[in-house]
Design a protein that fits this description.
Layout lengths: L1 H24 L4 H8 L7 H7 L3 H9 L15 H7 L3 H9 L13 H8 L2 H9 L14
Helix pairs in contact: 3-4, 3-5, 5-6, 5-7, 6-8, 7-8
């Protein structure tokens, strides 16, 4: 009997969590919508999704109104730099298509440098085709 009660309790909890996750993903609650626009300790949810190669989530978050050119995180980077640093050309391509800036003002947030360091030749080629400044020269960290 005790194991049946425990199973039922765990099932209800799992069902509740699944329901909340569905609401969050589909933006069906005020709290979920507020959470989407918030920031984690180090960057926005868009930065996080770009770094983790979740292009479907990146696309969804942009469609929900998250700012594609919002700087965030310790390096004050854009989501495209995070995607390039993760070596994810499909996310880089999506962000370019959606209008991401190609910020080369500071060397530590240059997406071209990030793609080279990650070893993603495809991301490097996408950034070059999109017109990133590959001739930028830095004095210290700034261009």
């Amino acid at each position: 009997m005790l194991s049946a009660i425990k199973f039922t309790s765990e099932s209800l909890e799992a069902s509740h969590i699944a329901s909340k996750r569905f609401d969050f993903v589909h933006g069906r609650s005020f709290q979920a919508t507020r959470m989407l626009g918030g920031e984690t300790l180090f960057r926005s949810w868009l930065h996080f999704a770009a770094k983790k190669c979740c292009w479907e989530i990146v696309d969804y978050l942009i469609d929900k109104g998250l700012l594609i050119n919002q700087h965030g995180g310790l390096s004050d980077s854009l989501p495209i730099e995070q995607a390039a640093a993760g070596g994810h050309p499909e996310v880089v391509a999506l962000l370019i298509q959606k209008g991401s800036q190609l910020d080369t003002d500071v060397s530590t947030r240059n997406p071209l440098f990030a793609a080279i360091y990650a070893g993603s030749i495809e991301a490097v080629e996408l950034l070059l085709k999109a017109g990133i400044n590959h001739r930028v020269k830095y004095s210290g960290d700034k261009a």
